What does this fold into?
Amino acid sequence: MVRPLARGSGFALLLVLLLYGFPQPGVAQYQPPRILYVLNPPSTGNEPKGTLSDRRYYVDRGVEMSINKGNILNVYREKRLNPSVPPIRMLIGTMEITDAKSGSSLGRFLPNQAAMAHPIIRYKTAMVSDLVVPRLVIDSGVLFDPGDATLKADAAEEFAKVARFVEMFTPSKLVIEGHTDSDGDAEANQVLSELRARSVVEYMIVEFDFINAEMIESRGYGEDQPLVPNDSPENKTLNRRIEALVWE
It folds into this structure.
């Protein structure tokens, strides 16, 4: 159960519970964490109130869901493009957890500049009810040779980390994403990212009995979702990655 976190947050908590429902006893279905409350810094009179870099965001889950200080989670906004279909999730940035306890955590939002430039994203920072999704990031160079989608023979140790990550959350749906840097042809990078994500999914289905084909999905994004600008060898290494996301 979410605890009151700050003065004035009671109304926000009640609103979230009315929108998303009260906890049901005995129901173990995974529900992604959401931003519950936005805390603006006190005004000093010298800068605009609520400067984005100083805002802190309360999340409705904490250490009970293995969300700990120092973790970096993905932040998604749900957008309903058609009333007859479920909303899509759009990556808008990451959340660095600065404090965590049972029932809640506190974080700092780091926007994804490419996502924020998309016209469908009108509010250019994180907001109440945005999803905060646990993730595990693995350097693609640990799993694959350059330009290749065949797993290295010594990749098993990294997959053990992924398995432990999945077991912490017991999700009903896990998404494996492939990402590249911007070197080379964009279309080739897209194909490479898809093939790498698929290789990871196929390996996990075979090697881990608690992961089956119905609960895991592969996606490739090529060079479209960089973590940092592709303007140095170090940054390009960070962008060449595989992400495991607890989706549902």
